[in-house]
Amino acid sequence: MTRAPGPTVLAAGCVLWRHSPHDGELEICLVHRPKYDDWSHPKGKLKRAETPLDGALREVEEETGHRCTPGARLPTVRYVAQGRPKEVSYWAAEATEGHFEPNSEVDRIIWLAPTAARNRLTQPRDQHLVDALLSVLNPA
After folding, report:
1. 72 lies in which domain range?
2. CB–CB of 120/39 below 8 Å?
3. I need a surface site. Which of 21, 26, 71, 74 has the fewest CB within 10 A?
4. Is 93 helix (H, G, I), strand (E, B) or coil?
5. Distance CA 27, CA 55 (A)
C-alpha cells in the first residue's frame, strides 16, 4: 500500500560558522543526531505561525546552545522524508555566544574547516550549503 504524500513539512536551519578561537580560520558547526546517527547542519520543523528565520534561530540555539547573528539567505533544500515532502530554509549565521550541552536530540557538535565539514556531512544534499556559505562570506 502506497502512502499518499501529506502537506509539505516546513523546517529551517542555519549553516553556523565562527572564526576559530585557536587560529582565526573559518569553522562550521555540525550536529550529530543519535536518532539518525548522522551529521547535519542545525535545523528543525517550524512551530505553528513561526517564521522560517525565527525557527532557524531557535533550532540553532536548541541544538547547539549557541546564539547567532543571521546573515545571507542560503538555498532552500527540498527532499522527501518519511514519505512526505520536506522544505528546509537555510541562512548563513555567525555564532556569537553560548555553550553546548548534550541533549536527547543532539548528543555532539563539532567545529570543522569547510572541507572537513563538507566531507563529514551525512547527506550529500547538505554539502552544497557549505559552498553557498563560502560564496556569501567570500564573494568573488
Report:
1. 9-137
2. yes
3. 21
4. strand
5. 23
Per-residue pLDDT of the chain (140 residues; tens, 9 = 90+): 455 567 999 999 999 999 999 999 999 999 999 999 999 999 999 999 999 999 999 999 999 999 999 999 999 999 999 899 999 999 999 999 999 999 999 999 999 999 999 999 999 999 999 999 999 998 76
Q: What is the CATH number of the domain that holds 124?
A: 3.90.79.10
Residue 83, amino acid? G
Tell me how far apart the alpha carbons of residues 111 and 20 are, in angstroms, rounded to a whole number. 8
Look at phi and psi of residue 60 and say left if phi exceeds 0, alpha if psi is from -120 to 50, else beta: alpha
Looking at the structure of the chain, the number of domains it has is 1
Place of cell 500500500: 1
8 Rama class: left (phi>0) / alpha (psi -120 to 50) / beta: beta
Residue with cell 534561530: 57
Question: Which has the closest alpha carbon to 136: 14, 13, 44, 11?
Answer: 14
| Residue 70 neighbours by CB distance under 10 Å | 15
